[in-house]
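Entry: Arginine--tRNA ligase
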Amino acid sequence: MFLEFKRQVTEALDIALKSLGYEVDDLGLEPSQHADIASKVAFRLAAQAKCNPKELADKIVAAIDLPDGSLIGAIKTVGPYINIDAGRNYVDNTVKAILEEKENFGGNFCEGKILLEHTSANPNGPLHVGHIRNSIIGDTLVRILKKAGYEVETQYYVNDMGRQIAIVSWALSLFEFDTSKKPDHAIADVYIKANVILNEEPDKVAEIDKRMQLVESGDEETIKSFAEAVEFAVTGIKQTLLRMNVSHDSFPHESGFIRSGAVSRIVEEIKATGRTSDDNGALVVDLADYGFEKTLVIQRTDGTSLYTTRDLAYHEWKGERADRMIDVLGADHKLISGQLKATLNAIGKKEPEIVIFEFVSLPEGSMSTRRGKFISADDLLDQIEERAYAEVDKRRPEMEDEFKKDVASMVGIGAVRYDIVKVSPEKSTVFDWKEALDFEKQGAPFIQYSHARACNILKKAEEEGKWNPAEEIDPSLLTEDTEVDLIKKMAAFDSIIDVCAKDLKPHTIAIYARELADAFNQFYRFVPVVSAEEDDIRASRLALVNCARIVLANALDTLGIGAPESM
């Protein structure tokens, strides 16, 4: 609803300015502590108008003529600023729209096809804590973009022919695979053992190099051994992702771009630019004019391609299938992603939008799959659900075990997702067990509890015959400050989705969900709802509780977090 309000403000200002003989590209609209939206257009036009900004602001306001049914209310000047408040229609229409649109409220204002790649961890073991920020940021962005109205395809790019996979393939020929374990964990076991041997016997590295050459040249037996190793790991990784409420639409494999000839073609395209040269037998690309002193290696001395070369072919393929490409990558990919974009630009291909995130860690320290020093995502989720179960059991000891387990799973996964996504991607963060599960700290459990509270209020009112969800209500009766504040907070949902979709920073929706829960609790704290004496006011306030339930559920769903009806 806020986007429509902003559109009407833009239109009203444009018409007023044209009536005064002025035109401007930017109206200087921005949030304000003193109004629902403010414009500093008088600043921008003062020189052109040869007029004092304050006087110009007064002229502009005097020239505004609002049509019947406008969402705009009071318009005032404060010095050179034009402060604009939403009117009663905005408040009433928001309530009506939420009750009518339900789960569709706040979205479907964008269009276009987006391919978004996230996670894409090497299939040489399970996902660990260092990976899951990628998965959670990526999945939340997918949900935001879909809510905005985009058609989004989510991809996990599978490294099925790099050095690490060659080591796993070699390890499977040496060690017994433990079929009793989750497959990605069993893969990690043999991978760690193989690295011990490679460290102790460096001459064995030649066997790994040989495998990489064989797989790229098309040796069927080696290809089969690589594929078997990858499939084991990816099967387990998918299970972990689904547990975190994360899914992918497709899993393109690196090897496919070798087999199709796409890698060879893109190498020739890059050569045709005149940027390549021989560096001790390796083929490198000069990107100095793009600001990169270091050249990009696209072919090894033995003629095999690198991950980057195959990634270039992958992005060329993606660019032909979507309006936009988005990659979610760790901070260690800053250089290589910049070189990738520059190379694609140099050959006239579409470039991806890159979301770089800093890493999440636990107080226990850093992780490495190769050294066998890591805390798997599975272990993290087991522990967080165990702690969530203890919290639910403490609060609801009378409930059956199945209820406690279901809520603990929802709360535990929600706590992990929220605690990780609430921090802007470019900032590093440490996952704090206690804070994530603290019901009083306004994290995921606080938001989920607010939703459950709304459900409980409505259920109790319906059982007592005080609420009929089909009954028409009069939103104009909702005039208390906390009521209007809550409605305006819900109305802002579409603008939050819009900002997140443009900035590709999902922490904004996390902050919004927390503020929405707080606004709902403030309303319920200060305004009698079920106990309201007048029937029509009680009905309108219960409808407002229902609105809060709907928008809280929408916000939680966009965050990939479950919305329990009871906690």
